[in-house]
Amino acid sequence: MATAADHGLKTIVWQRIKDTLIADCRKSEVWKILILDHFTTRLLSSCCKMSDLMSEGITIVEDLHKNREPVPEMKAIYFMRPTAMCIDAFINDFKPKPKYKAAYVFFTDFCPDDLFDKMKKSCAKHIKVCKEINISFLPLEAQVFSCDNAEAFKSIYTPNSQDRDQTLETIADQIVTLCATLDEYPGVRFKKDLNLNYGKKLAELVDNKLARHYELDDNSKKKGKTQAQLLIVDRALDPVSPILHELTYQAMAFDLIPIKDNAYEYKLKDGSKKEALLTEEDELWVKLRHMHIAEVAGQIPKLVKEISASRGEKKQSDEKISIGGLSQLMKKMPAFRKQVTQKTVHISLAEDLMSHYQKNVEKLCKAEQDLAVGADAEGQKVKDPMRTLLPVLLHPHDTTDKIRAVLLYIFSLNGTTAENLNKLIQHVKIEDERGYILNWEHLGVPILSTPSMFSFRKQSRRDRSDEETYKVSRWTPIIKDVMEDAVENKLEVKDWPYQSECPSAWNGSRAVSARQKHKGSSPDDLRSGSRLILFVLGGVTYSEMRCAYEVTHANKSCEVIIGSTHILTPRSLLEDIYKLGKQPMESFTIEEDKP
Questions:
Q1: Which range is the signal sequence, renumbered to this chain (predicted)?
Q2: At what angle do helices 164-181 and 8-17 cross, to 10 degrees?
Q3: Which sequence spans correspond to the domains of the chain?
Q4: Is the dihedral of CA 146, 240, 299, 264 positive or negative?
Q5: Which CATH superfamily is domain 9-135 in?
Q6: pTM here?
Q7: DSSP 8-state secondary structure symbol assigned to residue 528
Q8: Contact criterion met (CB below 8 Å) for 297 and 247
Q9: Angle in degrees, 0-180, between the axes of helices 399-413 and 570-580, rounded to the nearest 10
Q10: Fewest CB atoms within 10 A around its CB: which of 377, 406, 503, 577?
């Protein structure tokens, strides 16, 4: 059975928490209370279970911001963000009368001097330990992290945003804590953008903060660059991938099924409903999540057969059971039930997805793929994208699906005329909600074609004509090209400037396998080679997350880790885009092209 976060990045984070927060408290034999804020609750939930905490001497987990009964005989561990709200809540626990015997305080990252002084002035005699442990990101998967900040999208891309600079500062701090957790001091590069320079700005901030962090390292000596590279890209690099109907299992599930906080609700045979968590604790989910739905559907008969067979075996064992074998059977029962439950969940989810596909998605996929790729399944170039789009507009698809198709049409042309855009908006009946389309301009994605269109150059793509694909899944996210080019040292310096010097392995033409062994901070090194870390400003898609695993698998000596401000689904991105212009009719008055 897998213990706490037996999965890559999660393992490293959990180990770091044990080595700092828990190790400092372990010196005392007394059972303790753990008090968390909203973010640290999510952080710990992502990398450990309650049983893991109990084995470390923590008996109760409480919410910092809720009323709690005093337990004056117990010591409390506070794990929280260094914010004014958290500091005030902490002070209230010890004024006028202390709720706990003593406090061990651990901040996710650097605590500003004014807040630290305020806390010290009010509660110094109650604080036994006060440390910053440098983990202000969420390890969502083995190779995926998040800043857990969906609001950053609005702060960064809203025109004349008042808090853009502060948001970029915060994100940079979070990226630095990721690098520190991995014990990496990477060279930093960014995607050059002629329209917006948010990626460049973030790269500058991260590089400066990394330099300061490693100058002030506990070891009192300056750390040199490690065999790692950090690439910072903006969401505008690839507007297509978040909009397409992706047909791999995980991406498709989060696009088509209402899944919140990884919880999938499904029906049992008796009509009752049950909830299952789609996380890395579910081994079958990990096995299936990056498969194409056609392959997952092919697994279903096998899973049904296995459930039937295992139930038959259980029935036989029930009939033949001996007293001696009873204890062995009881030990196996939880694992048996877990396996049957997992299979039942994925039979239900796969059937749900196939139902959506056959009812609606299948009709959209051919047009979407032709528009995205610029050619049909036979390789013939799409000469008239409007002919490809028209069947989608004429079919009674829901409005969101039509908006997605219209956007793919516009992206394929690098922008369209005002007259054409007005007709499309009227056809989809979104005259009062045109921000769904027009607000992409705030990301630097061309929607209206202008004489200066030469400034927006389409990304050149890798040749994948030899790769086997499904006709309805021919598109490859641009980020995969970037990952592969980076691993092979093929990124053009004019497109990907160096913010700081990269280690020699990332500069020359040496193959990845020639890189030196990296000393990681985890108990066992995940990879024998280097790390490529990608950060996508403005949200990352499930299809892009999948690419990190695929490139790592293909290049065993380089581990790819991908992260972002938050995880996107097509619908969540469209809503975020729409909210960027709360006055879309005023912000964008489309004038008809003059003859």
A1: none
A2: 90
A3: 9-135, 140-238+477-505+528-581, 249-443
A4: positive
A5: Sec1/Munc18 (SM) protein, domain 1 (3.40.50.2060)
A6: 0.88
A7: S
A8: no
A9: 80
A10: 377
